[in-house]
Amino acid sequence: MFRPILAALIAAAPLIAWTAPVADSLVRIEVTSQEPDYRRPWTGGTIGGGSGSGFVIDGKRILTNAHVVSNGRFLSVSREGDPAVYPARVLHVAHDCDLALVTVDDPKFFRGAVPLEFGGTPAIESTVSVFGYPIGGDRLSVTRGIVSRIDFQPYSHSGVDSHLTVQIDAAINPGNSGGPVLQDGKVVGVAFQGYSGEVAQNVGYMIPTPVIRRFLKDVEDGHYDHYVDISLSYHPTHNPALRAALGLKDDDTGVYVGTVYAGGASDGLIHEGDVLLAIDGLPISSDGTVPIDGAPTEMAEVVERKFKGDKVAFDVLRDGKTLKVEIPLERAWPFAMQANAYDVKPRFLVHGGLVFQPLDANFLKAHEPDDLRLRYMFGHYVSHSLNIDHPEIVVLSNVLADPVNAHISDFRYGIVEEVNGKPVRNLEDLAAALEVPGEFTVIKLLGPGRPIVLERAAVEAARDRIRQRYGLASERTLKP
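Predicted structure:
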């Protein structure tokens, strides 16, 4: 029943020849999710649902997007032509590159499924086919598109990570996410994001196989270690006067280091004002590209293919001298604060009706505060090295009104600097400081103004009253 219908939809005969095994391996994923409430972090959050696509790969695993299964509480999967629905579970999820692996414990699910094989990166102007279950129907959908661009682009799921992407002129609609993109019978990408019709039409993006292979390699030890990063900014050196001032030859080589982010892998090894001439022996062009697989590619792709504990070697021009610098690679932890977080509970602490939370992207999206200091701390957290003194920025996010905290609401969205003279560098510091015995608790916020003063005996007397009034099942979650 399925194959004649599909044959009628697809005009190209070569495509039909390998449609059947694709259909046998394609998976529809249904997810019941629970979205955390960062305005009321003591609650469980809102129950919702969604669907996406995936496909079977080796090892009885299903590859899909991280955003398909994020915050999932229950997953079920089904295959084309099989009416049964099977419970599934997540094996690994990588929010920084929007990929996830899912499996099904019932062996019947994988009967007849042929694991799809991976190919290379498709060429510009070549044709690819996108398989999945987009909105508008319950059956398998196939669309075709032309590869129009291969570039580094932001991945919208995390909001801060950029990786290699392939742009195609086939729309990627809700439900398509996680579906395979095929060329010559092999997977060349995973469909994952696109523009709305108000921005651009028939423009979609897929995650190419270099990113997919890296994810699969990373989880071979049973744990995902995230991407590594050199944590610096670099700039082109096209300007002849700049090149002359730096002592560069007229050979279109080298990029200028603008910022070395504090706490990152390059901190103390690469200096601002250095010129990066080569990376792992590959010459760096003045536009920041290096030759990879016969094509100019963003220099960052060399690091993208490495793992935690690996090293990268630079040829550096510094003060007119050339030297070699080797950098041990690690995850760029300061940037995590600015990334969207998933699959974790909101962290918070309530004391005397005052609600404290760490500042991050989820917090900012939920609260939308107008406080300029708070927005500055978030926006410049890494670029201005604020992470050194504030591994976390602890915010007074709300005041649950009670006589014990009268006249404190004006302090909302203030940043906690000290409690009873002890610096607060993270939420755990705040919790520890609040437990130190004393008649009063003095909370100093960042910037000018009077401190918040609470009487400890009054806070203890109000504890049960506040919990019952506002439905607090717990007064704190310190660990994610």
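Summary: The CA atoms of residues 441 and 454 lie 5 Å apart.
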